[in-house]
Design brief:
Layout: E1 6-14, E2 20-27, H1 31-51, H2 60-72, H3 78-97, H4 107-116, E3 119-120, H5 121-140, E4 157-158, H6 168-180, H7 184-192, H8 196-200, E5 207-208, E6 213-216, E7 219-223, E8 226-230, E9 239-242, H9 245-251, H10 271-289, H11 296-309, H12 314-321, H13 326-333, H14 337-344
Parallel strand pairs: 3-4
Antiparallel strand pairs: 1-2, 5-6, 6-9, 7-8
Length: about 350
């Protein structure tokens, strides 16, 4: 004779369409025994849920450091990594957002951060870009559902300092003084508009005395005390540009002490050594011939400005200076267009 079975049904969940999911428990002893089995299942299931830890939500600090290591380190130049990405993340963004979980940071928190800091617009844009990438990769890795870096406005920012330049007359005085005192670096900067890092990376075989050209192939920077020789700043920075016969003859007067124009044997001059000598020379020159002290970058800017004042078009200036974006060139030199037009119309 078949034994009687007692059944107890238990709702254990819900299907996608909202219908209850039920599980049956049986006993040949009694209804109470079947109910006991159902109860035991509930206890075991509850214990399972308690024993299963919830996924750990990373803090901003944890993910930002992971982002630096995985998505940035090794993908950009070491100097750029350290001074453009790492410094902004570790010095400014982590101290502000550090211990907060990624999923808890909202758009208003990002806006409040930018309301609370005062940097130049270029730094603010860089920090916004970094934050956007940190959260975008977090979304892609299912660490948060939305990227909060949207529609951010910069209310507080430092006005960009107007770059100073020499007039044509001042530039000629500086070149003559530098030639007299054998400061080759300053002459080269004013004659070519190359970056300091490109100047320090300039080798003798980069100069084609026959065809009167200079090729920019490398840059020398200093990263935490270590001299790093790398490719130029960007693809467009690796360039060839013409030089005058007169300047080529001047370059031949520079003592050849090795493979670098400003180095010794196979070693380029370090950026720190150049900076020290440059500042010392500028102070002395400023006293003696009454011209302002400018930085190497302002000498580069002087070169671009004088080209523009002499009627050279923006696209040519972009190529000579090695700007990656024509907008960079335009933003720096279009403001000189009125003076260019004034000269061309004969009003000055």
């Amino acid at each position: 004779m078949k034994k009687k079975q007692y059944e107890v049904k238990l709702t254990i969940g819900q299907s996608l369409d909202g219908q209850p999911i039920r599980k049956s428990f049986y006993s040949t002893l009694s209804k109470a025994d079947a109910r006991q089995k159902a109860h035991q299942y509930q206890l075991e299931h509850a214990t399972e849920l308690l024993a299963t830890p919830e996924p750990v939500q990373p803090t901003f600090e944890t993910w930002a450091k992971e982002w630096l290591k995985t998505y940035k380190k090794g993908t950009v130049k070491q100097h750029t990594y350290l001074y453009s990405y790492e410094v902004n993340v570790t010095k400014y963004l982590i101290p502000h957002f550090g211990e907060r979980k990624l999923s808890e940071i909202k758009q208003i928190d990002i806006q409040k951060y930018f309301n609370s800091v005062t940097f130049s617009k270029s730094v603010l844009r860089k920090q916004k870009l970094i934050l956007h990438e940190i959260f975008e990769t977090a979304v892609n890795n299912d660490l948060c559902t939305k990227n909060p870096v949207v529609n951010i406005r910069f209310h507080n920012f430092l006005e960009e300092e107007t770059k100073r330049v020499y007039t044509n007359e001042q530039a000629q005085k500086v070149k003559e003084y530098a030639k007299l005192h054998q400061n080759y670096g300053i002459v080269i900067l004013l004659e070519t508009g190359i970056r300091r890092s490109e100047l320090l990376g300039l080798q003798w075989n980069d100069i084609d005395f026959l065809n009167l050209t200079i090729r920019i192939r490398r840059a020398v920077v200093q990263t935490r005390g270590e001299i790093v020789i790398s490719s130029p700043k960007s693809k467009s920075s690796a360039r060839i540009f013409p030089i005058s016969q007169e300047f080529a003859e001047y370059l031949k007067t520079i003592p050849n002490n090795g493979i670098y124009l400003l180095g010794i044997e196979e070693t380029p001059q370090s950026p720190s050594t150049f900076a020290h000598r440059f500042t010392k020379f500028m102070k002395q020159m400023s006293k003696e011939i009454d011209v302002p002290m400018l930085s190497p970058h302002e000498l580069r800017h002087t070169y671009g400005t004088l080209l523009r004042e002499n009627g050279v078009d923006i696209y040519t200036i972009q190529k000579v200076l090695g700007h990656a974006d024509i907008n960079t060139t335009a933003s720096l030199y279009v403001h000189n267009d009125i003076e260019v037009l004034r000269k061309k119309l004969g009003f000055s």
